[in-house]
Amino acid sequence: MVWIRVLVDLLLILFGTVIVVGFLALKPTRMLTRLKPEDLGLPSHQVTFGTRDGKNLKGWLIPAEKSQGVIICCHGYPANKSDILPVVSFLYPDFTLFLFDFRAHGESQGFITTFGLREVWDLEAAIAYLKGAPTTKEKPIGIWGYSLGGAVGILTAARHPEIKALVSESAFANFPEMVTQYFKSLGPLKYIFSWLSRFLGKVLFRMDYIENSPEFHIGKVRAAVLFIHSRTDELIPISHARRLYQNANSPKELWEVGGTHTSLDQAYGSAYQTKVKAWFERYLR
Q1: In this structure, which CATH number among 3.30.450.180, 3.40.50.720, 3.30.1330.30, 3.40.50.1820 belongs to the domain 32-174+213-283?
Q2: By CB count within 10 A, which of 73, 103, 128, 184 is most buried?
């Protein structure tokens, strides 16, 4: 009977470890805002706006006098608006830029991230802010999103047909499936973490990660979507982007490149900038 006791103890330890890892993921370490628009010579206004559930979010409005439209730029996990600032700054002054911190990231309120479930509320609050601001209310709106930000961009654009253009970079199509990929080195145990993600979503947030997967909502998006993804992405396989592209409406394009999950803009430099800017110039009208 000793072996049964040992097995039970091991299962309890495993279950406890999974729970701890899951809750730690929900509370990302806040990264400092190391870079500001003025460091790059960009004009900006600091803004604060609220979400439907009472979270105050912090952002930067980088106004361009003769902009073709406004591009909301959404960071990944666990990062903040300053991390993507040097990546998207090339879009100025052709476009006004709006960068903000998702809940529980950067300077925004909140203690836990929901990996896309309630971050949609954050992006919707950003859209509402721009629609109410005198200098941007008449401008067409586009979205640029990286990783988590790309997934949130898809989910939000599915609810807002006024979004004209979307660039989704390295986004996941299905969050529990991405979790399985992240813990692939654990063998069969990786499925426990995937199950936990769905469990926490239903218990803590009363929402289902499968039902709220971008691949099941991309078909509702009316914006022109450019998908950018690395064929050798070590975190989110290229199959995610291919499924999103297959289910998306036209106009759409999938640009498959090399590099890692975090290096696309650095690896492709001017080609990356030309591709992204041309997409917004063509469809953000």
Answers
A1: 3.40.50.1820
A2: 73
